[in-house]
Write a structure and sequence with these properties.
111 residues; alpha+beta; TATA-Binding Protein; five-stranded mixed beta sheet; 2 helices; 38% strand; globular
């Protein structure tokens, strides 16, 4: 249980760090969505650029069992790298947006 709480804390810190970087275009806001009850974490952008609707997901992370699932990563640095820097072992990280058959060729967990 202590490990799970630490994972939640690190994920929230990473999302908060990325939330500090604001969009340089349009009238958009970033939404930090944290659901610790179901372990879903997301950083999204919503708003308008002129008459064009903007909605995107920058980061989406879930915790399933004892693994951190990176469902979407739109960062340059890579959320997995940031989690490793925090101390999360690679075998506790699943790159969920990779094809399940390709995951076995990485040094991360397969699922």
């Amino acid at each position: 249980m202590e490990k799970l709480e630490q994972y939640r804390q690190w994920i929230q810190q990473i999302l908060a760090k990325h939330n500090r970087y604001k969009s340089s275009y349009g009238e958009v806001e970033q939404l930090l969505i944290i659901d610790t009850q179901h372990d879903h974490y997301q950083l999204s952008t919503v708003g308008w650029e002129g008459d064009r609707r903007i909605f995107s997901c920058l980061i989406h992370i879930d915790i399933k069992g004892d693994k951190i699932w990176i469902q979407h990563d739109g960062t340059e640095v890579g959320v997995a790298n940031e989690l490793i820097e925090c101390g999360v072992p690679t075998q506790s990280i699943v790159i969920g947006f990779h094809d399940p058959n390709a995951r076995k060729f990485t040094h991360f967990a397969t699922g």
